Amino acid sequence: MSAKKRPFYRKLHNQVLLAAAFGILLGATAPETAVAMKPLGDGYIKIVKMLIAPIVFCIIVSGIAGMGSMKAVGTVGAKTLAYFLFFSTLALVVGLIAADAFQPGAGMNVDPAALDPAAVATYANAAHAQGIIPFILGIIPENFVGAFTQGSVLQVLLVAILFGFALRTLGERADTVKELIDRITKVLFVIVEFLVVLSPIGAFGAMAFTIGAFGLQTLLPLLKFLVTFIASCALFILIILVPMALWAGVSVLRLCRYIFEEILIQMSVASSEVVMPRLMEKYERLGMSKAVVGLVVPAGYSFNLQGTNIYMTFAIVFIAQAVNIPLTIEQQITVVLVAFLTSKAATGFANAGFIVLAATLSVLPTVPVAGLALILGIDPFMSRLRGLANLIGNAVAVCVIAVWTKDVERAELRRRLAVPPQLDIAAAKQL
User: Fold this and answer.
1) pLDDT in tens, 201-259
2) Contacts of residue 279, Cβ cutoff 8 Å, sequence gap at least 6
3) How far apart, in whole angstroms, are the C-alpha atoms of residue 145 and residue 143?
């Protein structure tokens, strides 16, 4: 017996689309009013982010405690890290090659002396605090509770892994704690379902502010940069991610349809982290274990930012072309090597992608950091595109790693992916 079809306005993705459209309309017609809507977007992001740390902790602890052996956990972790490092580096190379091929900055003939360093001073100053050593030390929290208050997913990841290993070591003596964590996880996901009804409000506020504050006209002078970056991401998806997804037995298009609501929310509020709890829940519904989902998804937010990586090398070459500073092969290799290190810190704080881009430029004396002023105006739009590519890249990654580690069979993954996303959670778990 088929379920009764829900009305158009009752579907979440339609609500988000309509809310974003109204936000764009308000931003274009009444900019001052639209800018005042900013708290709606910020509030939604904050209220969802408050659940990320406890959800990540509970899922990882429950997953590790329930795995057959410590070796299995190590295998998943090693394969995840290998996958992330290889494909994130590949994304850097693709961004570099695409910028050389499309030449988005050619012909702009910008005088470096005319650039205003003050426009990007805030980002340049913040970039000085970024680096591989501060990043590694930043994974270690000041104390156990601090991991949940600092907003760092990697700190929570570290604490959760240690806690999960401790529960495994205690064995049956820790059964009460394991059961409690499982029950808390269920409660947290119910809260997420409560909060999801607020996503159209967040989408409206975020889009209204972005258009009201920056205006669609901001895109026009850099339309070639925008279009060629989109083409670069599309090529990466078609040439790299599609074959990887097919190897795992899934279609990228079907996978995107499965997480379509999360894509719309991310594109509206310009934050990938707010959809993390819902994504983790959906991946579990595809038959993946808590351990794989708990390790792969949070780690992907730091180590598998493929859209951000493409953007970093693409933007650096664009700025060099715009100010007529040709980069040699050796200098371009240096760009990739430096970006490989700095890109691992491109999450966990506001304007992370732009700040890490400034950090990369600060150690490359050839290209002026002030050149960031050329793309500062359209970065609010670019952040949404980067986030979209990151989201798709991580969706493919979790499927590939789940199949690679034999956590789920290809046929089972395909079968569950064919289930409509709106299907009731309880019904989906009975498949």
Assistant:
1) 988 988 888 888 877 777 777 888 999 999 999 999 999 999 999 999 999 999 999 99
2) 259, 262, 297, 394, 395
3) 6
Report yes or no: 28 and 218 within 8 Å, Cβ to Cβ: no
Tell me the domains of the chain and their CATH numbers. Answer: 55-168+219-429 (1.10.3860.10)
Instruction: Quote the pTM value.
Output: 0.80
Distance CA 330, CA 328 (A): 5
Q: And the tokens for 395?
A: 């969706």
Phi, psi of 91 (to 5 degrees): -65, -40
The Cα–Cα gap between 249 and 245 comes to 6
